[in-house]
TrEMBL record:
The keyword Metal-binding applies. Belongs to the iron/ascorbate-dependent oxidoreductase family. GA2OX subfamily. Keywords: Dioxygenase, Iron, Metal-binding, Oxidoreductase. One of its GO terms (molecular function) is gibberellin 2-beta-dioxygenase activity. It catalyses: gibberellin A1 + 2-oxoglutarate + O2 = gibberellin A8 + succinate + CO2. This is gibberellin 2beta-dioxygenase. SUPFAM superfamilies: Clavaminate synthase-like. Residues 190-290 form the Fe2OG dioxygenase domain. It comes from Ziziphus jujuba var. spinosa.
Length: 335
């Protein structure tokens, strides 16, 4: 039988069985992995933004503002992306990841965007038990990226357009809540730097202590996540890890580093992770980002951060991960 999962167990066998690299043996690290509770993220009905009642529109916008500043995460329903489109996208994603591994790794599907595991990992706490296609929006319409998967192309184009529309709506509301015009984030953000990421977390036979995706913050302005019902997403809240309860009807939205910087720390880019599990898990993330040469400054003075471009930020993140094994993030840019 042809295996469609990447050879994670074989590739990282030495790492997984070497005691010094196992974070579960380190009491401090183990403590940071304990999940204290399961949480229901703030749930926001976006029909409120379309209400004829001004008070209802304001109430909905304030709920988005409150969740972004207190949690950095929230869920949305009545978001405009039809259940039928989500179902079609999930079906195509399943077929894509069930392509034989050797084909995924060598045939340059989706702009050669396939990645798996963590090639730079030297400890298990740096290893992501997952595979993904991280596709620039600019490549989604190109027929040459899809090989024989013409049905995937059409669904991805429709899904990416719907996610982009939703991300810009929410970013506009968040900008307006800080006294700016709604279009200001749209002026900064550019589809040339936005991404759609298809994630697959294979069932992990090794340990429930392994990460499906290592703890991190997102670098862009805004992320919208469409996930299945398996669970595994966790976020840091009040200095402890909490597990996010899946909600089949909702999409998850979280603030990225650049929105935190632009808002002068009003909005919070919160550390989150995915835990590996005994059941495989699928998700799709849309990342709203600025063009690489766009200058990101704070929306008010005095500014907490120096001005920088998204290109500078991405370069610094790559350097830190290469040298230190982890992302440092916004603290590099504090004045």
């Amino acid at each position: 039988m042809v295996d469609y999962n990447p050879p994670l167990l074989r590739q990282y066998a030495t790492l997984l069985h070497h005691p010094s690299s196992n974070p579960a043996l380190n009491s401090n690290e183990c403590c940071t992995r304990v999940v204290m509770e399961e949480c229901q993220l703030p749930l926001i009905d976006l029909n409120g933004l379309k209400s004829h009642d001004e008070k209802e529109r304001v109430r909905c916008a304030m709920a988005i503002f409150k969740a972004s500043s207190e949690w950095g995460f929230f869920q949305v329903v009545n978001h405009g992306i039809s259940p039928e489109l989500v179902k079609k996208m999930r079906s195509e994603q399943l077929k894509l990841f069930q392509t034989p591994f050797e084909l995924k790794a060598t045939c340059r599907l989706l702009n050669d965007s396939y990645r798996w595991g963590t090639p730079t990992a030297t400890q298990t706490n740096q290893l992501s038990w997952s595979e993904a296609f991280h596709i620039p929006l600019t490549k989604i319409s190109e027929e040459s990226c899809y090989g024989q998967s013409s049905s995937l192309r059409e669904v991805m184009r429709e899904f990416a357009a719907a996610m982009s529309k939703l991300a810009r709506l929410l970013a506009g509301v968040l900008a307006e809540n800080l006294g700016n015009r709604r279009e200001v984030i749209q002026d900064i953000c550019d589809e040339s730097a936005c991404f759609l990421r298809l994630n697959h977390y294979p069932a992990c036979p090794v340990s429930s202590e392994l990460f499906g995706l290592v703890p991190h913050t997102d670098s862009g302005f805004l992320t919208i996540l469409c996930q299945d019902q398996v669970g595994g997403l966790q976020l840091m809240k009040d200095y402890k890890w909490v597990a996010v309860k899946p909600n089949q009807e909702a999409l998850i939205v979280n603030i990225g580093d650049l929105f935190q910087a632009w808002s002068n720390d009003v909005y919070k880019s919160v550390e989150h992770r995915v835990m590996a599990g005994k059941m495989e898990r699928y998700s799709i993330a849309y990342f709203l980002c600025p063009s690489y040469d766009s200058l990101v400054g704070s929306c008010k003075e005095p500014s907490i951060y120096r001005q920088f471009t998204f290109g500078e930020y991405r370069k610094q993140v790559r350097e830190d991960v290469s040298k230190m094994g982890h992302k440092v993030g916004l603290s590099r840019f504090v004045l």
